[in-house]
Amino acid sequence: MTGKYTEKDIGKIVEVHGENGSSFDERIVLTFCKICGARFIGTIREAGGFIGGHEMFHTWEFQLEMETEMEV
Ligand SMILES: [Zn+2]
């Protein structure tokens, strides 16, 4: 599934048949992480996972940093 779409695919409407079900009329979008700048091209559904995953990680990273600073 990863690396399936390229910049040429942005804006295309696709059908996705995955293990957990099928999605229809999914749009291929380009999204990026506002914190680290990582970019992702894929369906909106996958883009949501990408953004959520980054958000979750950066929040964790930030909290860890805060905790470390408090200990010093
Ligand atoms: Zn990020």
Keywords:
1 helix; 72 residues; binds zinc ion; alpha+beta; single chain
Question: What's the quick description here?
Answer:
The protein is of the alpha+beta class. Helix content is 39%, strand content 32%.
Tell me the count of domains.
1
Percent helix, as a range, is 25-40%
Number of helices: 1
- Let me know the largest β-sheet: 3 strands, antiparallel
Overall pLDDT: 92
Write down how many β-strands occur, each being a DSSP E stretch of 2 or more residues.
3
Shape descriptor = elongated
Which ligands are bound? Answer: zinc ion
Strand content is 25-35%
The low-confidence runs, each spanning 5 or more residues with pLDDT under 50, are none
Description of the molecule:
This protein has one domain. The model has no long low-confidence stretch (mean pLDDT 92). The termini are far apart. The protein has a 3-stranded antiparallel β-sheet with strand order 1-2-3. Helices cover 39% and strands 32% of the residues. The radius of gyration is 16 Å and the shape is elongated. It has one helix at residues 44-71, and strands at 13-18, 21-32, 39-43. It has 72 residues and is α+β, with helices and mostly antiparallel strands. The chain binds zinc ion (ZN). Residues 33, 35-36, 38, 54, 58 line the site of zinc ion.
